[in-house]
Design brief:
mainly alpha, 3-stranded antiparallel beta sheet, 237 residues
């Protein structure tokens, strides 16, 4: 991840990074030989299994963000009936502490399009699979907050890659072998250690505080427009 240090060094020498809750970090993930249907099924089971823990590791603003809504814990519009069935099975899994019916529902997907319809029918979700339908062919993880420096970028990369690696290797057919969700942080640390990126993974509690709220870019543009309409912009420049 040396390239990130170079990029942020250049950015830091030329610009000042302002913190705001409206900003975020999106991670695009590809794997060797490309994403197969089976790979995507594994990943979907993984993010669903750890949904509550992934959400809890985020600052409050990202848990309530309309541009990165949770894939499995909120109902969709009625036209997304396959995804709403997934949400129903997720709630049932939490109530009965067994994910087997939900995992079977995912496994029953016969194509990538059918899987997308069941677990990620829209783009503005925590895990976006819409790029499987175009040349990009990446999985996009949209939930992380704004990165303010290279360390933030490295953490969210390590966080995302560790989830993916764990999901691809997990034996979801034997639910009793899966790690306890309450040990989510320890699980990611172990995976990150195996991947050689443990140094980039920060303590979760250090990342849950939201930034103070300066005026956002959109608010600044609206204010500027109003001043231009009143003819008073020149007085402030």
């Amino acid at each position: 991840m040396v390239e990130l240090d170079v990029v942020w060094s250049v950015l830091g020498s030329l610009f000042e990074t302002k913190e705001h809750q409206s900003c975020s970090t999106h991670i695009h993930i590809s794997i060797e030989d490309g994403w197969s249907l089976q790979n995507l099924k594994q990943l979907a089971k993984g993010w669903i299994y750890f949904e509550g823990e992934i959400m809890a590791a985020m600052p409050k603003s990202r848990r309530e963000c309309e541009w990165a809504r949770p894939n499995c814990s909120q109902e969709y519009e009625p036209r997304y009936d396959a995804a709403n069935e997934m949400v129903r099975l997720y709630q049932e899994a939490l109530d009965q502490t067994s994910f087997s019916p939900l995992f079977k529902y995912i496994d029953d997907s016969k194509s990538i399009d059918e899987l997308i319809a069941r677990v990620a029918p829209e783009r503005c979700l925590s895990w976006n699979l819409q790029n499987m339908r175009n040349k990009c062919k990446t999985v996009e993880f949209r939930r992380p907050p704004q990165s303010r420096d290279a360390g933030d970028c490295k953490h969210w990369l390590a966080f995302s890659l560790s989830i993916v690696q764990w999901a691809l290797a997990a034996d979801f057919d034997n639910e009793s072998t899966l790690e306890n969700p309450r040990d989510f942080e320890g699980t990611l640390q172990q995976v990150a250690e195996n991947l050689g990126i443990m140094d980039s993974l920060r303590e979760f509690d250090d990342l849950k505080e939201d930034a103070e709220q300066p005026m956002s870019l959109h608010e600044s543009l609206r204010t500027m427009k109003k001043k231009m309409e009143k003819g008073s912009l020149g007085e402030t420049l």
